[in-house]
Write a structure and sequence with these properties.
This protein is of the alpha/beta class and 388 residues long. The protein is 25% helix and 12% strand.
Length: 388
């Protein structure tokens, strides 16, 4: 029987050599290596030989067993590992103790996140400025003093120093009156500081003119002014100024020795004062005679040597007072209501007052439409600007 070479990759058995036994013994078929042995040889359990054979190991090492799966860590430990608290998943050593955060929010994938710190409180608003105090009310007038509000309510225009068309027209009148007063003489016993204001008929505006003329002179000239009520009718300037129950010119006319100063009523305007007509004197006629009134006015002018006296007298065509007073005054202003008083009435009044050499007409309540009158420039706007 012819020897055949062993299959490739199998080792030759030493017992099969012909020199070992003279008798020919049947050869045992070689055993094929198992799959486990070939896997162990491929992974290094054997060494490759030069002849291409494989040395069979004396014993195959047991295959290493796989470690058992680790138990899942609790959620707190996984959170601590995520935030670097020193624990490692799957480490044999126990994780280091983790200090729980103050506030933990569990997010997606069981990951914990620290909550944002609470917002800082807004700073308190700055203290607001205290509210402005209300404007102080004007002090009340002293007892026995006529207030500026009373004078303004009586019809004084521009009494508080505001400018308007009416106040500008009154200023023109007072300038003319002062120029005439300074140019007048004392010839014939006249007193230039006595200025008589009258009209032909009632209701033409003589009381309004007297009040505003006195206030304008007191406001715009250095001379003190005394407004005298010589009319005394119902609705006179004495009643308008609240002095209807005081003593005044009537008492001076019926008692020649009575002093003047105690009867003069001051006002809140520094250079303006008032002499009322006065209440009736007990035991005397209700209306004094015109000559007695003229004598009383001369005594008043003598007692107040620096004052300008603005005399509001009755209408010239109604009583005799204006005619009697004309010879002692420095000038007479005759107030004429526009479009109402007739020409013959004005002429009659001027004839009765011709004892005074200086007669002046004052046109009241005139309708002015020409472009050269006051108000074209816009004097109404000056009502918000007080005079200096």
């Amino acid at each position: 029987m012819t020897d055949q070479p062993p299959p490739d990759g199998l080792p030759a058995s030493p017992a099969a050599s012909p020199a070992a036994s003279p008798a020919a013994a049947p050869l045992a078929a070689p055993r094929a290596p198992s799959l486990a042995e070939r896997a162990a040889a491929a992974m290094g359990a054997g060494v490759l030989g030069g002849g291409g054979g494989v040395a069979a190991p004396s014993a195959l090492p047991p295959a290493p067993s796989a470690p058992p799966p680790a138990a899942p860590l609790p959620l707190a430990e996984r959170a601590a590992a995520t935030f670097g608290a020193g624990a490692v998943l799957g480490a044999a050593a126990a994780p280091a103790p983790v200090t729980a955060p103050t506030s933990v929010a569990i997010g997606a994938g069981s990951a914990a996140a620290l909550a944002e710190p609470p917002p800082r409180p807004a700073p308190p608003p700055p203290p607001s400025a205290p509210p402005a105090p209300p404007p102080a009310a004007p002090p009340p007038a002293a007892p026995g003093t006529i207030s500026a509000a009373t004078i303004e309510a009586a019809g004084a225009v521009g009494a508080l120093g505001t400018r308007s068309r009416a106040s500008e027209e009154i200023a023109v009148v007072q300038n003319q009156v002062l120029r005439t007063m300074r140019a007048a003489t004392t010839e014939g016993g006249r007193n230039p500081r006595l200025i008589l204001v009258t009209s032909a008929l009632p209701g033409e505006g003589k009381t309004f003119t007297s009040l505003n003329l006195a206030a304008a002179i007191a406001r715009m000239s250095p001379q003190p002014v005394l407004l005298v009520d010589a009319d005394g009718k119902p609705g006179s300037v004495s009643e308008l100024l609240g002095c209807g129950r005081l003593d005044g010119l009537r008492g001076l006319a019926q008692r020649p020795g009575a002093p003047v100063q105690p009867l003069v009523v001051p006002t809140e305007f520094e250079r303006l004062s008032f002499l009322p007509y006065g209440r009736p004197v007990e035991g005397m006629p209700p209306v004094p005679s015109a000559p007695s009134i003229a004598g009383a006015l001369l005594r008043v002018a003598e007692a107040l040597p620096r004052h300008v006296l603005i005399i509001d007298s009755p209408p010239a065509l109604s009583t005799s007072e204006a005619t009697t007073l004309a010879p002692i005054v420095g000038q007479v202003l005759v107030v004429v209501r526009a479009e109402t008083t007739q020409r013959n009435e004005v002429e009659a009044a001027l004839d009765m007052l011709d004892a005074c050499p200086t007669l002046q007409l004052v046109l009241n309540q005139a309708r002015v439409s020409s472009s050269d009158s006051f108000g074209v420039y816009g004097y109404e706007a000056y009502e918000v600007y007080p005079r200096p």
